[in-house]
Every structure is written in C-alpha cells, then in structure tokens.
Design brief:
Length: 330
C-alpha cells in the first residue's frame, strides 16, 4: 500500500489543522446542560483534594508504616542517612496541602470541619495542626497494623511468612487504608478519608467506610466484594471472607422525604466472629455475639447470641449422568 508523502502540502495541512471545529449548536447545548445541572459542576470555589495527591499521601504513609517493603528510592531505604526525616517531611508536605484543600472545600459548601482556635485562621494553618496530630497517631497506627498482619498470617495456612501478607494480600492493604482513613475521620477531616478508602476499594474490591469501628487483629481473607458500612462495629480478632456484606437493612426518611443521616444502620459483630464467603448481615439493630460463626451464603437480619453457628438449610443436591461426556468417551 503506498505511504502518504509527508512532504505533500495536503498531508502537512491535515496534520496542522487539528480537530474540526465543534458546531455552535453542540457547544450551546452543552453549555445549557452545564447551567441546567449545577450538581454535576464545580466551576467556582476552592479546588477539591486531588486523587493523585491523596494516593501519594497514602503511599508515603505506607512506607512509614512498612519501612523497607515499598521503597521508591534507594535514598529512602531504612538505615540510609536521614531516611526517616525525609519521609516524614514528605508526608507532612503532602498531607498539609491535601488537608488544607479539604478544609477550604468543606467551608465553601457549609460542611463541618475541625477548627483549632490556637492554630490560626487560614486553612493551611489549621491543616498544619491536624498533620501534627496525625503524625502523633502513627505509632498507634503501626501497632494496630502489626496485629492485623499477624492475624492474616495466623488465619491463612497458605501464608508462608508475615512478609507475604504485607506484600501480597489485598485484605491487609485494604485494612491499612481503612485504619489510616479512620484516624483522619475521627479527627474530623472532611472528604479525604472517603477518597482514601475508595482508592483502596478500586484497588482491592474491598469497600470499608472510614467511619466503621473495627477492633484489633482484623483479617479479610481473599477480600473481593467485601462491604463494611459506615456505622458497622466489628470486635477484636474477627475474620471475614470474600463477598461478605455488613450493610443496612433499610433507610429511615424524614418528613421531607430525605434520608436521615447519622443513625446506626449497620450490624455489630462481637469478638472472634468469623463470617464466611457471601454472607449478608444487615441492620443497625443486628448484633452477632462473641465467638459466632456465620456460614457462607447466609442472609441474616436478626441478632445471634454468643457462641452459635448460623447456617442455611442444606439444599438438595441432584446428580445426573452427563450424557454429553459419556458420548464423547464412547
């Protein structure tokens, strides 16, 4: 097939002309749509925290929590001169920017945001104080995640070392993001905690709201499809398998027909509860007692006393000869 002559005037003109102009009617229709649906636009006000900046923050904190596992540079390898100071400085710089944007956004739309009178009037001054508070929480965050990593290793006979759970297990990664987001959530930081857990949701398929309260030594095995709602409470040493939902049974509405927010909508699990794959537990008044086991595929909307096993009745299995396979064998 003959190739176009790059020196030909027609070829040069086609390369330099760019995309064809958009018809005026199309531009007008899109502009009208923007005006008609303001909920889809944010053309004024301070900028939102950017997803890639929040991801940078998560990864920097991940390197602080798990030093030596996720290093991006030899210069930041634990033991290198100044690695801790450098990494802490990176976390502080990114976090201050992201949290300041979140505070400015919250004020612009009338949301509550933490205010420290001693910090100063600007969003950056407030954010700097929040970052200082957050950094003081890092030792406690690391202690909690050490128990989660041990729980993952102890809970999975296929794991050969705790290092494997840190590097490979989506459940450990999602729980790390949740615990980081939960610290910021309890500090009152707007928006950023949700971005952190939704990034983890996209990466792992595990959806944990940062407002959920989850006890120590928590393990999610396999993980994909797990959902833990905002007001769920999970006790210590709990274990969930893939596809488990801790969700709401119904949503209360106010006189104006809008959803009532801030109520307890999601279940409570006691200590040492195991929930197997595909189980669905719904309702803010549903309490599963300590040491219970919820079998796979269970649909549960009422409370269970401690030390019980909950399972569905076994379905009847029907076996028949695979005639197609028999004909192939013949």
């Amino acid at each position: 097939m003959p190739q176009p002559d790059e020196g030909h005037p027609d070829h040069r003109a086609s390369c330099q002309s760019g995309p064809p102009p958009v018809p005026a009617a199309v531009r007008s229709a899109i502009a009208q749509s923007v005006r008609a649906h303001p909920v889809l636009s944010r053309l004024e006000g301070p900028p939102l925290p950017k997803g890639h900046d929040v991801r940078r923050l998560v990864e920097a904190v991940r390197r602080l929590v798990f030093p030596g596992f996720f290093e991006e540079s030899v210069a930041l390898t634990p033991g290198a001169a100044g690695w801790l100071e450098t990494l802490l400085g990176e976390v502080h710089e990114i976090a201050e920017t992201v949290l300041a944007q979140a505070l400015e956004y919250a004020r612009s739309v009338g949301l509550d945001a933490p205010m420290d009178p001693a910090a100063g009037p600007t969003a950056h001054e407030q954010a700097r104080r929040l970052v200082d508070r957050f950094l003081k929480e890092l030792p406690s965050l690391r202690a909690a995640l050490a128990l989660d990593v041990e729980a993952a290793y102890d809970g999975d006979p296929a794991s050969v070392h705790t290092d494997e759970t840190i590097i490979c297990y989506p459940g450990v990664s999602a729980v790390f993001s949740y615990r980081l987001a939960h610290v910021l959530h309890t500090m009152g930081v707007p928006l950023v905690p949700r971005i952190i857990t939704e990034l983890a949701h996209a990466d792992t398929g595990i959806d944990i709201h940062p407002g959920a309260r989850i006890g120590s030594s928590f393990f999610i095995d396999h993980g994909a499809g797990v959902v833990i709602g905002e007001t769920a409470i999970v006790g210590a040493r709990a274990k969930l398998y893939q596809g488990v939902t801790l969700g709401a049974r119904s949503f209360e509405k106010g006189p104006d027909g809008r959803l009532v927010r801030g109520t307890k909508r999601h279940p409570t699990l006691g200590d040492r509860v195991t929930v197997y794959a595909g189980a669905v537990i719904l309702g803010g008044d549903t309490v599963v007692g300590d040491d219970c086991v919820i079998s796979g595929g269970v649909f549960l909307t009422h409370s269970v006393p401690p030390r019980h096993i909950v399972r569905q009745k076994q379905p009847e299995l029907v076996l028949r000869t695979n005639r197609d396979a028999a004909a192939t064998d013949a």
